[in-house]
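Protocol step 4 of 6: structure prediction from sequence.
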Amino acid sequence: MTVVGTFGLSMRDQALEADVQAGLMAVEEGLLEATKSEVPFITQAAQHLVRAGGKRFRPLLVTLAAQFGDPYAPGVVPSAVVVELTHLATLYHDDVMDEADVRRGVPSANTRWDNSVAVLTGDFLFARASHILADLGPDAVRIQAEAFERLVTGQILETAGPADGRDPVDHYLDVLDGKTGSLIAVSCRFGAMMSGADETVVDVLTQYGERLGVAFQLADDVLDIASDTHESGKTPGTDLREGIPTLPVLRLRERADRLGLAEDRELVELLDGDLGDDDRLAEAVARLRAHPALDLARRDSVRYAEEARAVLAPLPECEAKAALVELCDAVVHRAG
């Protein structure tokens, strides 16, 4: 049994493990090639996060989904490069919006240079992804465009907040469907589609990716509070400091409204105050770590992972399916 990647995914089959490792290595080479420019500074900025590493979760899903067809088909690796470039581009933009200082354990691009460089580098990565996508055919272009529209819509909905009378938790889950689920679903879809898998298999894997994507982001919400910088690659409480309403905070507010406990209301007041002060932020993180709301958020992540696992039922039993099933557990185990 071999462990692959930062998720501790077990590969019991040597042939599958070799295919996945070879695919991810090819994606890494493709990312470096796609981020080269005739302008040295652009290359440096574009490769900043590529060289910082990362989970490569989306390329992993592309390579696993491709196992249901021809994993060596020519479109598999380029499509994995496309989804990872798109993801990286959003990170450059996210760090500007969040005023983040650290990303993947290194200074964020906006910290190392400035906001303009970070935004323009993200745009450069989107352009390079589009260039590769054009060679994959009009269907791939349309699918990626639809996913990107959903991703941006999710980001806008997060910024706008829930409409009057809308349950904040339901609103937030809709945000994650677009902001995270869309691109992870496309990763599964591209892998299956580019490998020539049957259309029913493509549909199943797309649905799997939608649910797994939400589970993945909910686990990240928990990690923002529960992990240290070494584990998550960014400063704990970054989302809290920026006032981003992640699920643990939403569950806390829900509980405070329902039960009216003094300690819950005090914590809500702390979160609503100025968390620019490091001591206040540290206090908020410590109190949330010990609060039942964090466990409720973990349970939500597990629920979506279980839904993703259930979606896989119609697929034929094989090592790739077993790996996708195990990935459901690996995603939520990151959050404890």
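Step 5 (inspection) to follow. The two ends are 23 Å apart (CA to CA).
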